[in-house]
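Figure 3 (text version): structure tokens given as input.
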């Protein structure tokens, strides 16, 4: 029998089997939870968490937007993440901080409802089984939500129903993943990833005006791309530009760097992972595995 995982719940470390909440929990009924996705990687210094502070700052910012008082400081949450990884003896893993209304009363309102905060760390490999050969993507008929509907810079559970329905649309049509557009028809992002395009040697990606989540991996790749000598542009991207791109790829904590080789049945470039994508991907894994000291400040060692 495998050993139970150890979770952090409201300041206490508990076994997996004891981390229980009421079935009528508000956040289960209404999607009112908030979360982060973080990875830790094995490095020469041991398990190291990629951009921990940036993720936890965003977690607290999301809580502020939704008026959730977590009751824990940034430092307390960072320490809890490190300790969860350590107690589970994980060299590389996916980390899920999650805050939710831990209340079993029916009703949409949240005033006076208890907020609980939870952190888990689990073994995690590739998000896409097709990551090495590249993804076939469909531009979804469902548009990306924007800030007139919900706060898109808040990483909230309910936002991802938009992603779920777009993914169903893509999978049922025989594709690996979806690409969402804005209500004006500009390229936004994937269901859980930012998208980047290579055209004439430039790295081009939608900016915040395209209703995207400003991803932490996205920002990392833009920084690394500039340092590698590439021109980097954030601008509106028309849907048809995807079809004539030299290369396309997704970036994200779970997706890491995943090439896109086909969109709407149209082959991208020569239908294989491009040279610039491969170079960026290699550099990214050098950074997260601690082989590039230039970005050592992005790694937090679990001691």
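Below: residues designed for each position.
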């Amino acid at each position: 029998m495998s050993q139970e995982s150890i979770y952090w719940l409201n300041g206490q470390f508990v076994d997996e089997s004891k981390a229980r909440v009421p079935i009528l929990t508000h956040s289960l009924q209404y999607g009112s939870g908030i979360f982060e996705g973080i990875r830790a990687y094995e490095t020469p210094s041991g398990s190291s968490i990629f951009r921990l502070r940036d993720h936890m700052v965003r977690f607290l910012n999301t809580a502020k937007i939704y008026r959730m008082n977590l009751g824990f400081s940034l430092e307390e949450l960072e320490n809890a993440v490190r300790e969860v990884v350590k107690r589970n003896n994980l060299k590389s893993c996916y980390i899920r901080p999650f805050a939710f209304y831990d209340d079993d009363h029916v009703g949409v309102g949240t005033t006076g409802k208890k907020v609980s905060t939870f952190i888990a760390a689990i073994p995690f490999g590739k998000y896409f089984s097709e990551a090495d050969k590249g993804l076939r993507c469909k531009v979804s008929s469902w548009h990306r939500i924007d800030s007139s509907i919900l706060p898109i810079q808040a990483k909230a559970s309910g936002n991802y129903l938009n992603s779920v329905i777009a993914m169903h649309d893509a999978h049922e049509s025989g594709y690996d993943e979806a690409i969402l557009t804005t209500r004006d028809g500009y390229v936004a992002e994937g269901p859980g990833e930012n998208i980047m395009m290579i055209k004439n040697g430039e790295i081009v990606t939608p900016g915040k005006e395209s209703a995207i989540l400003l991803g932490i991996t996205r920002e990392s790749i833009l920084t690394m791309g500039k340092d590698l000598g590439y021109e980097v542009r954030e601008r509106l991207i028309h849907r048809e530009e995807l079809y004539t791109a030299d290369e396309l790829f997704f970036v994200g904590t779970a997706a890491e760097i995943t090439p896109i080789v086909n969109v709407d049945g149209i082959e991208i470039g020569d239908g294989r992972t491009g040279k610039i994508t491969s170079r960026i991907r290699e550099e990214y894994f050098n950074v997260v595995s601690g082989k590039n000291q230039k970005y050592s400040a992005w790694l937090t060692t679990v001691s």
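The longest helix spans residues 52-65.
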